[in-house]
Design brief:
The chain has helices at residues 14-22, 38-49, 60-76, 92-106, 130-156, 192-213, 238-242, 251-263, and strands at 2-3, 12-13, 29-33, 53-58, 81-86, 111-114, 167-171, 219-225, 272-275. With 282 residues, the protein is an alpha/beta fold. It has a 7-stranded parallel beta sheet with strand order 5-4-3-6-7-8-9, sandwiched between helices. Strands 1-2 form a two-stranded antiparallel sheet. Helix 5 (130-156) links the parallel strand 6 and strand 7.
């Protein structure tokens, strides 16, 4: 699809319109959780390339991967920059100090991408799995709420000239809307994972209403991808892997959805995006 201002001007592609919308975000501040996952790394890289200062929150091991990506991006980008932080988002003692630091040095934040989540092969009925069940719920639900709460505080403290742009994006899953086996040979997912994603869907709407209640000019978008190569590979059994490649999205596909959501004009909010690879059964 193309637009033209008049017959004598070159057609404007949708990519150019998107990039023009994203250009407004140059110099803004973003926080990405789960930043060392394949999806998180793709999002961090794309945001930095579009001129944002990005604070990536990751596990201790993931922090080193982020630092390596930061050095790589630093060579090629004059405006954007990636900062790597270790953070367990379900621990207030980790979350609050990081957001205080960002608020002290960067006058609040403009964009939050909630990407951190836990998915396991274990089942609800497995023996001795209480720590795994708690980890799923505390990370995917409580952790997301803690981070969003602290981010909202920093969005409120921004100077007036920066309050025209504000956005929270929750990276979720299609299993948060409809849940079934990916194919007839599949071992079921841990039932608490789709339960946590269904909860995230409800929480996204609750936060949208709370932003409206507090008169905050902040948008919120839920992005629900299907199977993502590299991101979800570990949940497949060896039998499933041996039966051929499952249709999958790339992490860059998910990142492209993030860029689209933040590129639209101020009066438009993309409430929800579902993206699936062609041929996926979920």
């Amino acid at each position: 699809m193309v637009d033209t201002a008049n017959e004598n001007e070159r057609p404007i592609s949708w990519q150019e319109k998107r990039d023009a919308g994203i250009k407004r975000w140059e110099g803004r501040v973003a926080v990405v959780t789960g930043a060392s996952s394949p999806i998180g790394m793709a999002i961090c890289e794309d945001l930095v390339k579009h001129g944002l200062a990005v604070f990536g929150l990751a596990t201790r091991a993931g922090k080193y991967e982020l630092e390596a990506l930061s050095k790589k991006l630093e060579k090629d980008n004059e405006l954007g920059k990636l900062f790597a932080f270790e953070c367990d988002i379900k621990e207030e003692g980790h979350v609050e100090p990081i957001f205080r630091y960002i608020g002290d040095y960067h006058d609040g934040i403009d964009l939050l991408v909630n990407n951190a989540n836990v998915m396991t092969k274990g089942l609800i009925l497995d023996d001795d799995n209480t720590p795994i069940l708690r980890d799923i719920m505390e990370t995917n639900i409580i952790g997301m709420c803690l981070v969003t709460r602290e981010a909202a505080k920093l969005m409120k403290m921004r100077k007036e000239e920066r309050k025209n742009l504000g956005h929270v994006i929750n990276i979720m899953s299609v299993v948060g809307h409809k849940f079934g086996p990916s194919n007839t040979r599949s071992k079921p997912l841990n039932g608490l994972y789709p339960a946590s994603r269904h909860a995230s869907t409800a929480i996204t709407e609750c936060i949208r209403q709370e932003f409206l209640f507090f008169y905050e000019n902040v948008k919120i978008t839920a992005i629900s991808p299907g199977f993502v190569e590299g991101q979800d590979t570990d949940i497949l059994t060896e039998e499933e892997k041996s039966h051929g490649k499952m249709p999958s999205l790339s992490p860059k596909d998910v990142s492209a959805a993030v860029l689209y959501a933040i590129s639209v004009k101020d009066e438009v909010q993309i409430h929800e995006i579902k993206i699936k690879p062609v041929g996926e059964f979920i």
